[in-house]
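Lecture notes, continued. The same structure-token format from the folding unit now serves as the input rather than the output. Read the line below as a description of shape only.
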């Protein structure tokens, strides 16, 4: 009689699902490449040979909107996209202060309507003044 032992991953239905990542640079979400838009660079070590001919690279898109973020599946794809982002941002005049990699499940961003809260505060102040007025009238 042969007895089959279950592997640990066979009990986990999410085992074969690849992790999903997104990249955030200084609060801006990486959205992917703009293939139609390229920028020119003059890198003497491009293509593993010494030359000074200008080359072209695709431009990367970033957005403040988390819904536009490029969702990257798997660690190998993540490594490739991180390399692209680093190469792109190091060509900029200002170096980024933070490059963050987030893994799913992603936090739900909290948005607050400041005017709503200020309005509530002003209503509370009015009500407190009215209560104080009414209690002073009874004395």
């Amino acid at each position: 009689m042969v007895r089959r032992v279950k592997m640990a991953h066979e009990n986990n239905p999410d085992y074969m699902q690849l992790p999903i990542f997104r990249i955030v640079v200084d609060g801006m979400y990486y959205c992917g490449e703009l293939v139609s838009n390229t920028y020119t660079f003059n890198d003497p070590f491009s293509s593993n040979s010494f030359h000074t001919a200008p080359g072209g690279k695709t431009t990367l898109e970033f957005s403040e909107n988390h819904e536009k973020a490029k969702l990257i599946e798997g660690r190998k794809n993540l490594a490739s996209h991180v390399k692209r982002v680093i190469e792109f941002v190091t060509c900029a005049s200002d170096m980024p202060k933070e490059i963050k990699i987030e893994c799913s499940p992603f936090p739900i961003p909290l948005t607050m309507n400041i005017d709503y809260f200020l309005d509530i505060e002003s209503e509370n102040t009015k009500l407190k003044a009215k209560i104080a007025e009414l209690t002073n009238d009874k004395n």
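Point for the exam: The chain has a mean pLDDT of 76.
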